[in-house]
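Sequence in, structure out.
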Amino acid sequence: MAIQSRRGAYADFDPNKMLPGEWAVVTSGDPNDPDGRAIYLCYIAGIVERMATYEDMKKNVQSAAKGERGSRWDYGTKITGTSTSEQIFSNSGINDANKGDYYLNISTGYVYYCTVGGLASVAKWKYIGSIKGPTGPKGSIGNTGATGATGPQGPAATIQIGTVTTGKPGTQASVTNTGTENAAVLNFAIPRGDTGAVENLSQQQVDFSEASQRQNIQSEETLAILFGKIKKYFSDVESEVFEKLKQDAESESAQSGAFLLGNLKIQWGRIDNLDVPASGSIQTDAITFPHAYGAPPFLTCIPLGNYYLAANPTNNVNLSQASFRVRAADGAAHNDRSILWLAIGY
């Protein structure tokens, strides 16, 4: 039978399967050789020995001359864990490990023992213990150190009030510093309170004064300001429009008239042939508005001519009619007099 040979990695090498006279070439991973390569010869079944090449003999002679190295300590953080079973750590970075070497993990303090030497991809290690002992008892508290020297006095601080603004109801109050730590400028934002409820608002009395000039009403103004502006508006209407109507009524014989602007109705008229006694007063007959109102109108009246008379609307006023009460203001009787009335409303 011809002599055969085998070849392959050490992991696939099984000497028990070799036949007498058969060679086996290990191409990689042999733990018995630093470069992982070796040759084996089977003499008889079950007896397989490793052969040495010329290069192997040369290395052995050189090693014998200088002596083999003893156990070595390596260190790092690549070999980890607490398994007591042999393991390969291919990323250990140790490619010349010998059986009997030790490895210290400098992060955990764990110690490992090399059971199979060789390259990092072959060498095997196992955990054997730790250089860290158990945690000792807590030491006593040390003495209080001496008081440090007083630091230099810092600069004097100043505080100024910047702006104060009113925020919307329900927002958070805030204070911001737009200055520096030593020269603070504080800006305040204070939320406005919720609008309170007023019971029986229709029965509440409002104290107000006529505005000095005619202006549009604005949202969120108080009732006193609103009524003051409205009063100014009606005063101007009475003084400007009513004077024009008075002139027309005195110069013309028209008994009534009206000016319509959308839903706004400005109506006027005159009542003649009034005999006013020196004392007491008289009530005029009811006049009918040329255009009825949808709500009670603003109503006023004045006497025509330079007479000392006083005229006011009576309580007998509705949406389509009104009457007036006239009296002498100078204590003298006045006959055949006239008054001019003005009604404004919607």
